[in-house]
Amino acid sequence: MDLSSHFQILTSQLIPLYLIGGAALFALGLYALVVRRHLVLKVLALNVMGSGVFMVLLALAARGGAQPDAVPHALVLTGIVVAVSATAFALALILRVKAVTGRAYLPERNGDDPA
Amino acid sequence: MFATGLDWAAWAVAVPLVGALLAGLLPRLGPVLGLVFSLLTALAVAGAVMAVWHEGPVRAGLGGWDVPLGIALSLDGLAALMLAMTAVVGLAVSIYALGYLHSSQTRGKFWTLWLWLWASMNALFLSGDVFNIYVTLELVGLAAVALTALSGGAAALGAAMRYLLVSLLGSLAYLMGVALLYGGYGVLDLAALGAAMEPDKVSRLAAVLMTVGLLMKTALFPLHVWLPPAHGSAPAPVSAVLSALVVKASFYLILRLWLDVFPALTVPGFELFMGALGAGALLWGSVLALRAARLKQVVAYSTVAQLGYLFLVFPLMAVTPGAWQAVVFFALAHACAKATVFLAAGSLQQAAGHDRLAQLGAVMRKEPVTVFAFGIAGASLVGLPLTGGFIAKWLLVDAALQGHAWGWASLVLAGGLLAGGYVFRVLGHAFGRGPVDPDHRPVPAVMVWSTLVLALVSVALGFAGAASLELLALHGGQT
């Protein structure tokens, strides 16, 4: 066997690891989004979740063997563009929240309070 | 090649996008550009709706690249009705905003963001593949959040921030679902996915992730907590658009997915669960609307309640397959009525300088036309005869009774009674005796009359039930 087929076998064995890793990142990000209170940490948590989704997509792209599937790659690229714009917007909004309220946290709210 | 219907539909996306760019480059001309491009967008949408009406549903690959390589645009009766709903409400909101934003510095940004939001929503309704839907979903979400933050106050910024986090979380859950679907089937096209769907574990997980993500954005009880502060603290034209259209966009996707892609995945009890959440929304939202102290909060909680009706689509479809058409007509009636109510509330708030319900009577007595518009739209929310809301509830009850689902039928009627409670709670203040507000600021005529015209659309909808259902029957689409 030549080097590239060794490499192929190695990648195919790594795919489940990438899938599990992606799912773990998604779950970790979700946990941090709920638990962390500082807004920058919440935005970072969303970015970690996004990386989890991208990792799952990359693992799916590698399943074809020698010829990786280009469609998930295109999805990840588009996803990164969306994530960058959303993050930039979120950070700008955090700056405004901090400037107006003096704190980079969500306003206190106890569930439904119609008053 | 594009069919004629899709030509119109492509214009319905391109025109507001160009308008948004121009309004961003030339902020001084914002109002003029906003009005011109709103009219042109409505024109393109009218063309698309007429094309579907006469030639039936159409699908095509963008730029001549066909599925699976290209991105499909799909225009059928459901998409056309959503485009029409957005155009009618959008046009009224644009005209209203000419008066509302007159003294505000936020004017230039408003037109860019609003036309951008309009373009994104039109693109969302026309998308034929799950990933393109993700992109449009994010565009809608970001534009909606930016509009919420427009007034720049602490309350609005906090509400916008919460809305943004919920919206991004919802999109990511949806995207994870898209990844799983692609992993399972190797296609992204809605029709191709629907044809290949197998009830296995991965598909179910994808369906759950996508549905929950979209439920967050639709603010279905108990995921609604972000909605009232966001819709209540935004400027009135924005509140109208958010409550009438933006939450419907994500509901449209839930409906589209469960009609065309996931029907093979339903498990016993699923429709009951969704119906129970809808019932919870209806009851809890109404109770809070009855207790809220500020006018815009009443209207925002009323949205939480009325969104509950939309999710009766699941239990009703289980007994009467055509029931989704009744629910879509309900969404249409609610969009017109809720936008009117928010616009009227904005006029009253501007006239009074506040929106504390207990002290609004004096201003309401000075603004009979606005209160009249509020009354008509309120009647549509309650479901009184001669309004679109009446026909919508009639269709819902009819669908429930056809399937002998007495419980759901009585829930629809009970929801109407509760809506009557909070609508008349507001209107009651107009009929009390008392002084007229001395500090009252007159409401610009363009705001008064655009609100009234939109209220009259709610009445016109009372006579458009048959036509809407005929349009909705044009489902699916051929290449």
TrEMBL record, chain B:
Kindly indicate whether the keyword Cytoplasm belongs to this entry.
no
EC identifiers of the protein:
1.6.5.11
Q: Where in the cell is it found?
A: Cell membrane; Membrane
Establish whether keyword Transmembrane is in the entry.
yes
GO CC terms for this protein?
plasma membrane
UniProt GO MF annotations? oxidoreductase activity
List, for all copies, the residue spans of the domain called NADH-Ubiquinone oxidoreductase (complex I) chain 5 N-terminal.
68-110
Topology term for the membrane: Multi-pass membrane protein
Cited InterPro entries: CPA3_Na-H_Antiporter_D, ND/Mrp_TM, Proton_antipo_N
Q: What sequence ranges are listed for the domain NADH:quinone oxidoreductase/Mrp antiporter transmembrane?
A: 127-413
Q: According to its UniProt record, which protein family does this protein belong to?
A: Belongs to the CPA3 antiporters (TC 2.A.63) subunit D family.
Q: What is this protein called?
A: NADH dehydrogenase (Quinone)
